[in-house]
From TrEMBL, chains A, B:
InterPro entries hit by this protein: SpoVAD, SpoVAD_sf, Thiolase-like
GO function term, MF aspect, one: acyltransferase activity
Protein name (database record): Stage V sporulation protein AD
Keyword S-adenosyl-L-methionine: no
Domain of life assignment: Bacteria
Organism this protein belongs to: Kyrpidia spormannii
Record keyword Transmembrane present: yes
Alphabetical UniProt keywords: Membrane, Transmembrane, Transmembrane helix
Record-annotated membrane-spanning stretches: 270-290
Amino acid sequence: MGRVGHQTYVFERQIGIRTTGVVVGQKEAEGPLAKYFDRLHDDMRMGQKTWEKAERTLLKEAMDLAMRKAQLEKEDIPLYIGGDLMDQITTTNFAASSLGSMYLGIYSACGTTVEGLALSAMMMESGAVDRVMTGAVSHTYAAEKLYRFPNEYGVQKPPYAQRTVTGAGVALLEPGTGPRVEAATFGRVVDSGLKDPFDMGSAEAPAAVATIVAHLQDLGRSLDDYGLILTGDLARVGLTFAKQLLEGQGVTPTERVEDCGVMIYREDQGAFAGGSGAGCSAVVMYGWAVNQMRQGRYRRVLLCGTGALHSPTSVKQGDSIPGICHAVSLVMDGDR
Amino acid sequence: MGRVGHQTYVFERQIGIRTTGVVVGQKEAEGPLAKYFDRLHDDMRMGQKTWEKAERTLLKEAMDLAMRKAQLEKEDIPLYIGGDLMDQITTTNFAASSLGSMYLGIYSACGTTVEGLALSAMMMESGAVDRVMTGAVSHTYAAEKLYRFPNEYGVQKPPYAQRTVTGAGVALLEPGTGPRVEAATFGRVVDSGLKDPFDMGSAEAPAAVATIVAHLQDLGRSLDDYGLILTGDLARVGLTFAKQLLEGQGVTPTERVEDCGVMIYREDQGAFAGGSGAGCSAVVMYGWAVNQMRQGRYRRVLLCGTGALHSPTSVKQGDSIPGICHAVSLVMDGDR
């Protein structure tokens, strides 16, 4: 098929998710999706001296798990595409250094998971590589320290804030079926002028809606064509807003739209409006959603990687928080 | 051709650099390459209140120039791929927001220019888009403030340090000839254990050499097949080191290896060992090198985007500085 419409590419090759590796921290391990994650940490330092190094451990473990499940070694991985929330995406830089593969660093904040999945599939589509590993990671204490305040300060947050997920999710792509990458819709930056860095879901929601609508228009589809539309980290405030925006554009039924940030914690876990972070979409999409497709619950799922493209500096200088969303449609072929 | 060897992809489509847009600051405007840059600023604030916003102005102006030369409007640009040195690549996020195109954020530090060029060509190869704009930017005062100390402190630097280039360089790719993207070699992270953040050239040199050697081996070529091998920002210390490493591997003649960081300033300009930064390769490659190819001076040029993958935090935590290098071979077909 190739390019369809303005923003969508339909893959001609069969590009499947062969294995995934998903590692999470304590609060995620206590949440409703724990059984879908491969490794649960109760030590938030993961045996490291700093939060930043703990985050690297998460990503390296997720890489190892994805390789081990496929009975592959580091030398068998030609390319890693990924990123994270740390300044200069150092978590991924160092994990890619340990891996030893070719490496393309990317950044779209919490939408990095899906940008990586889309670009990985593009690299396989052209035949540049026959196998790619891609993923994203975040650590709540590393993110708090960088974006807000060190956790030890005990600064209070508003109830509409989100908790950065501690976790890494990685997918190993190979020629194959299930679930396979059917199409990718590349997002535009959408800036609604919102400026509250605690309310990232609302800053991301218009971008999520723009990309979902573009995806459906490009392919001539409706939400009914998907068993699930899974946004990355709108959390409860942003998801409600996104559904209102979709319904305002006549795009229904929005019950099919769910959000990783809403799903990953129970409401009584004290995670405010829900999860956020590059690791949020990574662990829920590669842990839970891929599993649900393999179990036959969903035949086609639209993964929507939402990102808030601010920095602590841009917020302090009074800038708005632009949002972006890249989408990838996964499909299970046949009646497997 | 498709994939050749382990790390290289040879493009089947004709993907050419149609126009470029290059904007620089004061010291670059006083340097030996000034006449190859489209716009020279003498106000380091570019009319903005902060260095970070000045950096955005540089990038937006470079985008505008590349579009204007091609008589295109923002609406004609389907996709921008790029990044910068700021935390969370906010410069590029905001410029991409103004542009309004689809946007893929990337990061490989000072190697971002060439990662962007390679990925842009991959997106065109598969037919996902028929036109891409790609580029990179840095601003010396924004970078000093973020990576080292605010310039106003007057902290002294060792003579082997480098000066971050103030400048943005953008290329507009379309189906066409000159110069066209012939091949891309995707780099691996190379960590030599160096830890001095002032000596980025030495941290990058082994990565540059690894990618140059991989490129030549994959294609069965020698340095003689290139009129010029242009590294991004090794500067004088790193370039000398890289040439020693190449000669140690029997890869000669290394007179053909030049470096954007060495070329952009005269030795008497007080820029230490030379230029660095994502803008360094962007302005020299898209300003000077593309011009020299069009003038017929070089038929084939290997652009080597070198990056040091550290952050201020990783350096303070005692980590080494891993390097990476992505390479793109440009060629002028025929005797145009």
